[in-house]
Amino acid sequence: MDILIASTLDAFRLLFSGDTEIWEIIAISFRVSSLAILLAIPPALIIAFVLAYGNFFGRRFIISLFSTFLSIPAVVIGLTLFIVLSRQGPMGNMGLLFTQTAMIMGQFLLSLPILIAMAHTSFQASDRRAWETARTLGANRLYAFFTVVYEIRFGLMAAMLAAYGRIISEVGASMMLGGNIAHYTRNIPTAIALETSKGNFAEGIALGAVLLFLAFILNALLHHVQGKGSINP
Amino acid sequence: MIDNFHFSFHGICKHYRRKSILNDVSITIGNSDCYIITGENGAGKTTLMRILAGIEKPDSANIRINDGAALSWRSCRSRLSQSLMYLHQQPYMLAGSLRRNLEFTAKLNPAIIDRVAAVEQVLQWARLEALESQQAVSLSGGQQQRVALARARLRNPQILLLDEPTANLDIDGRDRTLIMLKAFLKSGTAVVIATHDPSIFTNLKGHGLHIEDQKLRDKSITPSRVLDISDYQKSRGI
């Protein structure tokens, strides 16, 4: 018990003393995950919209496929991309393995199924009259799409926050694709794994506290957003 | 005023799950035409309106616009979306205030140069000035119907298609709707109304049509309660 209290106190000391290494790891984490989610949102929204509003052969199969991808382990994504990006792989000549770009690619693929599945549910539950009204008021397809997106923005924000929460805390893909290189690809989850294996609990707890705080912020945001979309705001 | 136009729809057929809804239906709509379409529940009134508006795909249909060549529904779809406007039985209110709903519409009409003035004008026309900052979804059914008609005014379509526009409205709401529809007809817009109760619309002097056995047939409209618009306007100070 003493070791936990001592390590926790050390962790907060590290955080608030402005330890550059710790804050650098936090910055890398946010940079990589934010870029990954920003890149994933546009295609995910378009795919989710087409799956919800479209009527074509294989639609149900694709929906089932993305639902299956929801439970895909991060290490499997990491492994697949590792093979693709390694020297013998089809994209090996690009030299992307053990870079932040590779981590972004991994997190992009991880966030995509969550975004698509949750956004699809939101689009599916949306009132079709929103699309028809926008079209009948003179909006072109793109403008009508953005109108529907705005109408269901609370559900979509929940999808984005859930996806962001998943990718910023995943360790498998980041470890395999980034290689946990100090000052470059070491992010919060990989650093926690490393520091814990070294018996350096204070740094692990400090970074864990950041993740916990982030989880709290994301959940608070989620409830705030969902509250705004409620029937009785 | 709306420029002269006429849309001729021929051979409209539609079926759902092996059940034929519309079979070889034809209708021609021109300036200031007013059609009152009746029919049993599920007869195909809404389906017909949605096909005309370019929202729902028919099995087959030929369309002639202003004596042009007969074209398929698919090739005319964007033109139909531009020229015809369909109003749902329960109008959909976009998120935000009533004013935002009108500004949204004004922004989409390139013919409107002064958007602020246009929005103010329709707010007055629909007598919605006092409600402009209210959330549109919180308005009553009658008020939402007026917002939908105000949006239509800004959109200025050649043909306005209304699905049960007076359903769930009180007498005052109905009368206001009728006055607004008269204004559309006067400006050259054609009005097509699907309804269960055609007698409400006798004052519009519309042409009665009835959908039965998947066909559209002429049917006269008998008034049950004639609205004297001038009396109504006097009593309301309009």
Protein topology:
The complex is a heterodimer of chains A (233) and B (238).
Chain A: H1 2-16, H2 20-53, H3 59-69, H4 74-85, H5 100-125, H6 128-136, H7 141-151, H8 153-168, H9 172-178, H10 188-197, H11 201-228
Helix pairs in contact in A: 1-11, 2-5, 2-8, 3-5, 4-5, 4-9, 5-8, 5-9, 6-7, 8-11, 10-11
Chain B: E1 6-16, E2 19-30, E3 34-39, H1 45-52, E4 60-65, E5 71-72, H2 73-83, E6 84-87, H3 98-108, H4 115-125, H5 141-155, E7 159-163, H6 171-186, E8 190-194, E9 207-212, E10 215-218, H7 229-236
Parallel strand pairs in B: 3-8, 3-9, 6-7, 7-8
Antiparallel strand pairs in B: 1-2, 1-4, 4-5, 9-10
CATH topology of chain B: Rossmann fold
CATH-derived topology of chain A? MetI-like fold
Report the span from N to C terminus of chain B.
Answer: 22 Å
For the record, the CATH architecture of chain B stands as 3-Layer(aba) Sandwich
CATH class of chain B: Alpha Beta
How are the strands ordered across the major sheet of chain B? 6-7-8-3-9-10
CATH class of chain A: Mainly Alpha
Which class do the helix and strand fractions of chain A yield? mainly alpha
Radius of gyration of chain A: 20 Å
Order of helices and strands of chain A, N to C?
A: HHHHHHHHHHH
Strand count, sense and barrel status of the largest sheet of chain A are: none
Mean pLDDT of chain B: 90
* Share of β-strand residues of chain B: 25-35%
Q: Estimate percent helicity of chain B.
A: 25-40%
